[in-house]
Amino acid sequence: MFRHSGEHAAAMLRALAAVLLMLICIPAANAAQPSAAPPTAAPPIAAQSTAARPTAAPPIAVLTIDGAIGPANADYVVRGIARAARDGKQLVILRIDTPGGLDTAMRDIIKAILNSSLPVASYVAPGGARAASAGTYIVYASHIAAMAPGTNIGAATPVQVGIGPGGPGGPGSPVPGPSAPADKEGADKKEPAGGGAMERKHLNDAAAYLRGLAQMRGRNAEWAERSVRESLSLSADDALKLKVIDLVASDLPALAAQVDGRVLTVLGREVKLATRGAPVEAAQPDWRTRVLSVLTNPSIALLLMTLGIYGMLFEFMSPGAVAPGVIGALCLLLGLYGLQLLPVNYAGLAFIMLGLAFMVGEAFLPSFGVLGLGGVVAFVAGALMLIDTDLPDYGIPVGLVAAVAVTSAILIAATAGVALRTRRRAVAGGPSALLGEVAEMLDASIGGEGWANVGGETWRVASAAPLMRGQKVKVVGRSGPLLMVTPVDYQQQGERS
Question: Could you give the CA distance from residue 338 to residue 340 in angstroms, rounded to a whole number?
Answer without folding.
Answer: 6
